[in-house]
Specification:
By secondary structure, the protein is an alpha/beta fold. It is 31% helix and 19% strand. The strands form 2 sheets. Strands 1-2-3-4-5-6-7-8 form an 8-stranded parallel beta barrel. A two-stranded antiparallel ribbon has the order 9-10. Helix 1 runs parallel beside helix 6 and helix 5 packs parallel to helix 6. The chain is globular and about 45 Å long. 43% of the residues are buried. The N terminus is likely disordered.
Length: 210
């Protein structure tokens, strides 16, 4: 994913998360997404082991960013997983200190569940007890506040679908959007038509704002 703090944004970045199957990697590639997320937290229904993730990442073209998603994993564990998988970015979903992972050769995305204060590059997600893929939206009005305070990349997630992502973009004008359950037919199984519809909805809303 591109940094936008100093460069003009060309398009809203689209990340499909919780991908578990090679067919779904192919669907994401064909739909023209910008990043694909692979869940490395054993507590997730979309969990993939490091060696399985490595095989999936091997099918991701260089133009798309492979992202490893972690929850309270130690820097050593993340480093080993990055070594095996060749992730080019990591997404931290727990209460990790991002500086503990700064030595790794990857981009870092810190997930924030409003209302906590935001720091660094962040993905704003719904404030729920569990981690990720719960399909609930949050108050999009908080995005503007986060953008004003941070002055850097803000992605939004939480309950996005092909039906509401256009409204989310028009309301918040985010740097990027993140979706998992909103483009699935069942947990761990993405729906290729929903992925295409999601991407189309993003690009349509984006065109309206230009």
């Amino acid at each position: 994913m591109r940094h936008c703090a100093t460069d003009a944004q060309v398009s809203v970045q689209i990340k499909i998360c919780g991908v578990c199957r090679s067919a779904d990697v192919d669907a994401c590639v064909q739909a023209g997404v910008d990043a694909i997320g692979f869940n490395c937290w054993p507590g997730s229904p979309r969990y993939v082991r490091a060696h399985d993730a490595a095989w999936l990442v091997s099918n991701v073209p260089a133009s798309i960013l492979p992202v490893g998603v972690f929850v309270k994993a130690s820097p050593e564990e993340v480093a080993e997983t990055v070594r095996i998988t060749r992730f080019r970015a990591i997404q931290l979903h727990g209460d990790e200190d991002p500086t503990s992972y700064a030595h790794l050769p990857v981009e870092i995305i810190q997930v924030i569940r409003p209302p906590p204060a935001c720091v660094g590059r962040v993905l704003l997600d719904s404030h729920v007890a569990q981690f990720g893929g719960v399909g609930r939206t949050f108050d999009w009005g908080l995005v503007s506040l986060a953008k004003d305070r941070l002055g850097c990349d803000v992605l939004i997630g939480g309950g996005l679908t092909p039906d509401n992502v256009g409204a989310a973009i028009r309301a918040t004008q985010p740097w990027g959007v993140d979706v998992a359950s909103g483009v699935e037919s069942s947990p761990r199984v993405k729906d290729s038509q929903k992925i295409r519809d999601f991407v189309a909805a993003v690009r349509s809303a984006e065109a309206e704002l230009k």
